[in-house]
Structures
1.
Amino acid sequence: MAADAHPQAATAEGGHASSLGVSNEKMGMWALIGSECLFFGALISTYLIYLNRTNDGPTATGIFDIPFTSVSTFILLMSSVSMVLALAAVQGDDLRQFRVWTIATALLGATFLAGQFYEFTLFVAEGMKLETSPFTASFFVLTGFHGLHVAIGILMLVSLWAASMGGRITSGKAEVVENVGLYWHFVDIVWILIFTVVYLIPVG
Amino acid sequence: MAEQDDHSHPTVGQYVEIGIILAVLTSLEVALYVFREPLGRAVTTPALLFLTAVKFLLVVLWFMHLRFDHRLFRRVFFVGVALATVVFGIVGANFYLGPGLGF
């Protein structure tokens, strides 16, 4: 049907084109990312407001372990590199390489999350709890929500890997991989900001 | 369609180069933290913000393909960034103009 042909037309990478000439799925992912910018902008701003309201509890200078967080940051950054390599592999129809890079990205993300969990455990042991002060509450909410986003990203990556093993991911479906990649890179750029604004500048 | 939708993505070599640049920039950030005492906040804070902005743009433009993709995606993303910047601006005003703003 001619009327259906335009909105249902497929994009070059397997998505459904909208009347704007772009994929609906990709547009949806960018809209989500745009709104998430505001979400994390609000959380980082809240942290800055409460940075010095420590109620005689731990302060940023006294509690953050910058060398440890630097290693975590490096790991998350490298996961973005493996993510783009996974995308390049699926676009080149090299599914074996795609699976390797996808699972590598998920493992790097899991390592970052394990590091965050370890860091939280140390903080709690040193008396820095959610209810200790406005500073600690805003810190845990901000970094906790980021960690939740990383966990969701890992689930997406594992789903991609499983779909690939079942033969449901091919170069014709590269846009699905690209959309998951967009989400993953967004999680990375949020951490790039958090590392500087939350960790390095207050302590430095 | 009036606007171009160029899907030519970077090559694997370019992705690796960007990854190396990101690693070097992160190392520079850590170096600024290590040498924070002799350098002072007046140097480290603007330098850290500059390095962060460069890393942010490298990931967004190259890894997220905004440099190559449809303009509409760029607009949607940067509207979100602009709104987040407004929130930052309000917080900054709170810091510099005091509690009179009602925070």
2.
Amino acid sequence: MMRFHPGDEVRVRSWQPPGHIRTPWFTRGHTGRVVGMLGTFGNPENLAYGGDGAPRQPLYRVRFAQSELWSDYDGRPGDTLIVDLYEHWLEATR
Amino acid sequence: MAEETHMHRRHHDMGGLDAGPIDRHEHDHAPWEKQTDAIMRLLVAKGVMTVDELRRGIEELGPGAYDAMSYYERWISSITGNLLEKRILDPAEIGRTMDEVRHRHETA
């Protein structure tokens, strides 16, 4: 069951828990748009400590404007970056 | 962002930080590096450990060791740590084997 679909605007949760986290620090709290769905995978935050990865998590490709991620970005205005992010790290913006 | 909000930014999660120049040279792998890769593949295939555990172990090396070690040194350190945690290896067994290998090299 997927919560998000291509075209949806999402915000990466700004959680700062300890542990093994696959959500890059530089994306946290930032807003992007879902551009694809990669499948459903065991949760690495659980697998990393010997768990079975359940419940499995949908993994999305999320596109960010570079200027959204880096306040001092001085590349071209239309530059973007795509990051793979698990569903439990994403929230709807509306 | 204030420094205290970086409490749980782990050292490896360095995207966007100044990391200096990147060495883009191609290089050959030493036999022990290929063995390390093979050991990891076997451990995953046999369900002993996951790549997520490998990564977690690497992240827990600490900033000093993480920076000083090469890629496969990080791998074998994490593999060893994970096998100790799972009680598949024990420290005495590793110590004994390291002595044997050292002796073999000295007398070779």
3.
Amino acid sequence: MADPMRIRAQASGSSAVVRVLMSHEMESGQRKDAAGKTIPAWHITDVTATHNGKTVMTAEWGPAVSKNPFLQFTIKGAKAGDKIGISWKDNKGDSRTDEAVVS
Amino acid sequence: MQTRREILRHSAAVAGLLAATGLFPRHAFAYTKAAFEAHTLAEVMKALGSNAPAESKDVSLTAPDIAENGAVVPFALSTTLPNVKSMLILVEKNPSILVAKFDVSDAIEANFSTRAKMGQSSDVYAVAITADGKAYFAKKEVKVTLGGCGG
């Protein structure tokens, strides 16, 4: 299981800005190891965000997203105390879900 | 004895069989694989079933002029267009042009920030696709002093 994500959700006016820092290697599949063999791609493919249990955003990522990916987006109508859930899935079938509360 | 060519042909055949039976792990996902393997903007748009994009002032892309480290280039993309279905980030000279695709719902603003890898200096595109399949883009050239794809 991968390390937990760091999620910060901050209400400002009628919406909330969500910042997520995931912990993932995001291997591009372009690099070679010391023996000259290509290191296979290993990256997050699907990201889902929920607001009080309802899916508000999905994203699909390729290997070109940076290592330990950062994501910021804005949820309309979210207020302090609301629950934000983020989950990701990678191309090796690993996944992780974390939750945060809007402050 | 098998020649190198024969071995290659056999492994290609096996790979084909695996793909056909859905044993390749990637095929298990609802993943727009074709779009992520495309090499040109036109191919990506075709894989996603959209028209060729038109340049638009309503789409904005924020990126550095010069990225010192190609492994982490910050991008922010947003649009003021109504009925946007999804937004894409593309780096033209990366091995695969599509970096990320975000699906926009009514509950969120069409405004995302993330960080991506860039192999070399290239044009970067932010594309917004509306619900009726029309696409609009903004582009910006980003110079990279140190590539982020390794090798």
4.
Amino acid sequence: MRVRRLPLLLSGIVAAGLAVSGCAAPGAAPGTAQTASAEEGFNDPFEDTNRGIFDFNKAVDDAVLVPVAKTYRTVVPPPMRQSLHDFMRNLNGPVIFMNDMLQGQIGLAGNTLARLAVNTTIGVGGMFDVAKLIGIPYHSNDLGITLAVWGFVEGPYVIVPVLGPSNPRDIIGQIGDGLADPGNYVAGQHHLYYAVLARTVTSGIDSRSRNIETLADIEKTALDNYATIRSLYRQRRQAQIRHEQSNLPSPNPLSGSDGASEPAMSYSIAK
Amino acid sequence: MLRRSAAIGVLAVTALFFAMPREATAQDARGFISRLGTEAIQVLGPSVSPARRLARFRELFRDDFDVPGIGQFVLGRYWRTATPEEQKDFLRLFQEYIVRAYSTRLAEYGGEPFRVTGSRPNGAETIVSSEIIRANGSRIAIDWHLIDHGGAHKIIDVYVGGVSMKVTQRDEFASVIQRNGGRVAGLITQLRQKLGGAG
């Protein structure tokens, strides 16, 4: 049952992806379409609806998310927040590993596996990022990137209520990652659905608390915040898909990437 | 004998110097970004008053960035549809807009360690990579794209975490123009309003 579930799930995702992206040629280099029409290609046919949801999200953000994230930052001391952050990242390890493998990034997969092994044991269940200290930096990866690497097009830009910027490819990726996650699977087996919810909420508060100022500053200075966020999201995803920072040559194969680098301004926008 | 070997030595060093102009330029580019980055981060620090920060940023941007080139790029295809007057107005307003926006957006990196990590040629450009190490231990990769402008380095784009600031700006301005019926004048009005206010 457990063994058979993953391939089944994958074929489901692939089928759905094909349907959404209109059977993109698998050989097509990802991103070429966007580059060709980069000058005006916002790929945003539902802009009016999206702007509506964007405003709604802004209201939710102001009323709920930011106050919660600020309280979290005030109440919980920095070392504990860092530990929680590292713990949440470690929980994502298996899914990152899966995607590293699916993309044929063996070096990155080795890093992720080594990080999981070190941080789960010496790092006390992932609460301390010991692996980073010994030169194995974190990198993120997800099924949205995998689908892009496989040649699926992104589909139109959409704003998801509460969750923010995305596109069909990334939405399918997120669902797939959630289903493939062993932590969620174990919780599901024991009917601990609140654990899955708690994890999602915690990880949301963690990321929001880390970019309160960044997003506020962009909003304050932008002429068109919506267009700025859209550009940041799409560029950031393209950079992740190119594995730009991961492909820099490094003398040390185990720490062979710059992937630990945070996307900074676009951190929250395209995690 | 001694004088002769000294002369040969000088010749050899001179020859080496001229044989490696590219190396020298790359070194030079790294030094340029190292100085610029360190100063910018310092200026962004909490001890500097907002007015002084703005003044210094204005100088940095004017002296070290290819302002006309960036200005033309961010207006995209609308550069050609703009009247010479609009182009002039736009360049002036855009410069001030960038200075204000980025001195605010980058303020949170103030005082954090900055270091240059490498450089590589990219066609006519030189790309200098650098990083900021944040208090929480995370690193932010910043790539500076430089061109040689009459012997002086000029920055034509900055990539933060793989995201081009020039492209982001172009996308935003294009959206503003489109929402103003394709008129550059609409963008100019909005820029003026933004700058006219508090910030």
